[in-house]
Amino acid sequence: MALSEDDVRKVAALSQLALDEEDIPRLRDELSTIISFVEQLQAVDVTGIDPVAQVTGLVNVTRPDNAGAMLDKAQLFAHAPAHNNDAFLVPKAVER
Questions:
Q1: Across residues 58-77, what is the average pLDDT?
Q2: How would you write 29-61 as a 3-class SS string?
Q3: How many helices (DSSP H) and strands (DSSP E) are in the chain?
Q4: pLDDT averaged over every residue in the chain
Q5: Which of 27, 20, 22 is nearest to 2 (CA)?
Q6: What is the pLDDT of residue 95?
Q7: How many CB atoms within 10 Å of residue 53?
Q8: Is 39 in contact with 2 (CB distance < 8 Å)?
């Protein structure tokens, strides 16, 4: 399946990505290649094969989630580089 440049623009908008116009033809080709690989995978006969989430056989080991004593706010914020007495203040990570 070949994508159009408009398809790339739509995917970029849905993903909230800003693309340069000169990158769109290259991305169209790359995304079309990826989709063709997926189409090849869909053509594989997997009748009788059970789906698996992982193949190592490992199992997560977890501990019980037991509530403990609450930390004192003053002690907690004493080690914070920035706070407003209600929350830790962190640098903005995402621009919109």
A1: 88
A2: HHHHHHHHHHHHHHCCCCCCCCCCCCCCCCCCC
A3: 3, 0
A4: 90
A5: 27
A6: 77
A7: 4
A8: no
SS3 77: helix
Neighbours of 39 (CB within 10 A): 10
The tokens of 76 are what?
Answer: 């907690």
Give Rg (Cα) of the chain. 24
Q: How far is CA 77 from the centre of its chain?
A: 30
Residue spans per domain, the chain: 5-42
Contact 3, 28 (CB under 8 A): yes
Task: Give the tens place of pLDDT for each residue, 26-48.
Answer: 999 999 999 999 999 999 999 99
pLDDT above 90 covers a percentage of the chain that reads: 58
pTM: 0.52
Residue 16, token pair as written in the block: 């909230």
